[in-house]
Amino acid sequence: MLEIQDLSAFYGNIQALREVSLKVPDAWIVSIVGANGAGKSSLLKCIAGVLTSKRGSIRFDGREMGGMAQKTVVEQGISLVPEGRQLFSQLSVLDNLLLGAYTYFRRRNRERISEALEQAFAMFPRLRERQSQVAGTLSGGEQQMLSIGRALMARPKVLMLDEPSLGLAPLIVEEILDTIETLNQRGATILLVEQNARDALQLSHYAYVFETGRVVHEGTGRALLDDPMIEEAYLGGV
Ligand code: ATP
Question: In the structure, which protein residues have their CB atom closer than 6 angstroms to any atom of ligand 1?
Answer without folding.
Answer: 11, 14, 16, 34, 36-42, 195
